Structure formats: C-alpha cells, structure tokens
Amino acid sequence: MYQNCLKFCIKGNCTNDGYRFSPKSSIQQDFWCKLIGWTCSDECRYICMWNTVEKFQAQHGYVPKFHGKWPFTRMLGMQEPASAIASMLNLATNAYMYGRIRSEFTVRKVPIVLFWHGFALVCMNAWMWSTIFHTRDTDFTEFMDYACALSMVMGLFIAVIVRTD
Fold first, then answer.
1. Phi and psi for 78 in degrees, rounded to 5?
2. How far is the C-alpha of 115 from the C-alpha of 113, rounded, in Å?
3. d(Cα 63, Cα 77) in Å, to the nearest integer?
4. Taking the model in full, what pTM does it have?
5. Could you list the mean pLDDT of each consecutive 10-residue stretch along the chain, which spans 165 residues?
6. How would you classify residue 77: left for phi > 0, otherwise alpha for psi between -120 and 50, otherwise beta?
7. How far does Cα 41 stand from its chain's mean position?
C-alpha cells in the first residue's frame, strides 16, 4: 500500500531526480518545510505514510512503523518536534552551565577547568547534532547524531575517571 502510493506520488509530482517538484505537482509545501529542505520525494513519503496509517488504523487497528520509525506529525517542518525541542533544551542548559564555568573559574587558578571546557564543548556539539537529526533525518544527520552522542558518552566516562581521581 505504502510502496504503491509512493511510486504514484513521486511519478506524478516530482522531477526525475526526486528532489524538486514538477510543474504539474499538486503538493503544496509550507514555508518551514522549504526552509529545512524537504524534497519532493520526502513530501511523498510523508503523505503516503499518513495515508497508510489511516488505512491501517481503519482496517487493522494499529499504526505501522515506516523506515524503522513510528510516524510523527511534523510541526514547523520538524520531523520529530518533541525530540527536537528536548534536544534544544539540553543544548541550552549545557550552554548556560558552560557560561557559568567560564565566568567562575579560570585555567590559571584551577587547571582541570580546561578539561571541563572541552567536555562542555563536546556535549553542546552532541546536543546540536541531536537537534538537527530530530528536525531533519538524513543519513548524514543520523551519523553525526550517533557519532557525537558516542563522543559525549566517552567524555562522560573520562569525567568519571577525573572525578574519582
């Protein structure tokens, strides 16, 4: 059902590369989706996902996963709005605490502060990529999210060792 819808939608609305909308396209993309970079084939996947969800709920009473993920309603172009907002809040909290570290401690007086500067930057980078990934899932943003999350976990492991020393 999903695959047939997708094939029909892409053929009827997208250019051959699948990125742009053809002149005869019936899909209307909002400002936020354009800003974030949703392509024509992405829009078709989204439309067909929700068409399939409606039919599955009516016929079978459950919601299927698509591309290994549960369907979410986009908000302001964000693919997973709650996760993206939670990641933004984590980034903001880390940035706030980093500002406090910078204002209250100096490397000359407390040399270990240099480690905490680096750790804070690693964490802020990880939360930034988490926000980007949950806003717009692509192979690259997924890789960066997982790689930076791993760097944060490794930083936490080092922090435990530093703190217990």
1. -80, 130
2. 5
3. 22
4. 0.83
5. 94 91 90 93 94 94 88 93 96 96 82 90 98 94 97 95 82
6. left
7. 18
